[in-house]
C-alpha cells in the first residue's frame, strides 16, 4: 500500500495542473486522425525538459492514457480510428452515430475506458513492485537476453513480416552503437559531427514517429480536407451509466482481455480491442447485433484498449522492456531524466514512480469526466485539414528536437531518420522494433560487455550466456515468439491466398 | 521472362540498399580497431547482414508479400513538400533564423497542400492567419515558456 503514501503528491498545484493539461491535450490529440498516441507522447517529451522527473512523467502518462481514449471520438464520429487501438470501436460506434446515437456511443466509450483503465492501473500498482523485486535476481547475461527479448518480441509480433521486424530491430541496435563506445572511448560509425555524441533518443523518437506521418500526409496531396463529422445530439449521462451496467459481461471481457494482453510485450491496443470485441461477440446472446450499432461492441473494445495501458507499463517499469511503442517512448522520457526502470526506480525514486502511477489512476477519472463533456469540442479539432496538421507537426518536430540539446545536429538526425523510416515503412519495415533496438541497444551492449568480462574470468562465454535455467527460459521465449510469429504469418498468407482464389 | 513490376523493382532496390548497409556495417565491425569496441556491433551486424540478405533474396525472387511501395502519383504528391521540408531543415532554419524559416516553410507547405482554391483571396487570408497564429503559439511556447535559444542568423 506504499502507493497511498504518495497519493497526495498528485494533487500539488503544478502536478495536478500538468495532469489536467495532459488529459485535455491528450483527448484532443487522440481525436485528431493522423496523430497516434506514440507520436503525441514523442512530440510532448521536449516540453518535459524544464520539469522535474515526476512532473514530466505525469504529463506524458496523462497524454498516453487520454490519447487512447480520445481516439474513440474520431472512430465514432468520423469512422477514422484516432489510433490503431480504436479500430474495433469503429465497427459499432460509427453505426451508432449514424443512427443518431453518437452522444450515447461517446459516453459509454469514455465510461468503459475509465473502468478498464482504472482496473489496468490497479494491476500496475500491485504487480510492479513484486516483479521489480524478482528482477533483482537478474545478472548481466539475463539482462542481455531480456533486452534482446524486448527487441525480438516487438519485432516479430508487431510487424507483418517477422524477418523485416527483426531486421528493423537490428537496424535500431546498430544505430544505438553509433558514437563513442563506453569502455575504450573509440569512435564507431561516426561520419558527421552531428553523430559524435551518438543518436539522441528523443530526436530519433520524434523523427521515427512524426516525420513519416507528415510525409504520408504530403503523399495524399491536396485531396485530404477535414472529414465530415456526424452531429451529436444531447444524451443524459445517467442513461449511459445504465447502459454500461446492463452490459457488465462485455465490460468484464474487455477489461480482462485488455489487462492480459497489455502484460505481453509487443501485443498492442489494436489486438486488445479486436480480441475483446471478438470474445464479447462469442459470449453474447445478441451476437447478430454486433456490427449494427450494438453498445456491447463499443464497451468491449474501449474497456480493453484502456485496460492495456497500465499493464503495458509493468514490463517497462520492472524489466526495462516496453510493452508497447508508446511505452518505449515513455522509457525515453524516463531515461532523459536519469531514471532507470527496475528496482532502481522503486528503491531510489519511489516518489517519482508512485506519483507517476497514481497520476495515471486519477488521470483515468479525469479523462472520463472531460471525455463526457468535451468530446464535441475534440470532434471539432478532428476536422482540422491534414495540410495544416502536416505543417504543424513538422514545425513541432523541428522545434522539439532542437530544444533537446539546442543542437541543429539533432534536427538533422531527426529528419534523416524520419525520411528513412517513411521509405522503410513503404517496404514493410516498422518503426516500433527499430525504436526498441535504439533504446534497448545500450542496455544490451553494457550487459553483454559486463557478462563477457565475467565469463572470461569464469566458465567461458557460451556456458555463461547460454547456461542456467533463467538464460534457457529467456532464450526459449525469444525463439518461441519468433517461431510463433512466423507460423502466424504463414497461416495468414495461406488464408489470404485461399480467399483470393475463392474470389 | 517478363520485366519486374514496379513494386517488385522497388522492393529489390529498397531491400538492396538495406543489404548494402548491412554488409558495410558488418565490414566495418570486423575490420576496425580496437576490436573490443566492436565486439557488440559484430554480433549485431552479423545478424543484420544475414536478415538483410534474406530480405533481398526474397525481393529478387518476387516472394515479398509485405509493403506496398510508392505509386508514381504518391511520389509526385510528396515531392514538393519533401523538398520544402528538407530545404527548411537542412539549410533555411540555420541560414535565415529559426522563426523566419519556420514561418516561410509553414506558409509554403500550407499553401501547397491546402485543398482550398488558390485563386480565392479568402483562402490566402485564411492561410496567412493560420500561419500567424501558429508562429505566435510556437514563439510563446519555445522562446518564452521553455526559453529555448534558437539560431537567429540572418533574420529574427
Distance between the termini of chain B: 61 Å
Number of helices of chain A: 23
Strand adjacency order, main sheet of chain A: 1-2
Give the % helix of chain B. Answer: over 70%
Share of β-strand residues of chain A: under 5%
Number of domains of chain B: 2
Strand tally of chain A: 2
Notable features of this structure?
heterodimer; A: 503 residues; mainly alpha; two-stranded antiparallel ribbon; 23 helices; globular; B: 156 residues; 5 helices
Kindly describe this structure.
The complex is a heterodimer of chains A (503) and B (156). Chain A has 503 residues and is an all-alpha fold. Chain A has one domain (1-500). Chain A is built from 23 helices and 2 strands. In chain A, strands 1-2 form a two-stranded antiparallel sheet. In chain A, helix 6 (102-134) packs antiparallel against helix 18 (350-381). Chain A is globular. The mean pLDDT of chain A is 82. Chain B has 156 residues and is mainly α. Chain B has 2 domains: 1-69; 71-155, no CATH class. Chain B is 73% helix and 0% strand. Chain B has 5 helices and no strands. Chain B has helices spanning 6-31, 39-61, 72-95, 98-113, 121-145. In chain B, helix 4 (98-113) runs antiparallel to helix 5. Chain B starts with 5 loop residues before the first helix and ends in an 11-residue tail after the last helix. The chains are: A mainly alpha (503), B mainly alpha (156). At the A-B interface, helix 8, helix 9, helix 19, helix 20 and helix 21 of A face helix 1, helix 2, helix 3, helix 4 and helix 5 of B. Chain A: The chain crosses the membrane at residues 20-45, 57-78, 105-127, 134-155, 161-180, 189-211, 256-277, 316-340, 352-375, 387-405, 434-455, 461-484. Chain A: Residues 18-436 form the DUF112 domain. Chain A: Keywords: Membrane, Transmembrane, Transmembrane helix. Chain A: It comes from Litoreibacter ponti. Chain A: InterPro entries: DUF112_TM.
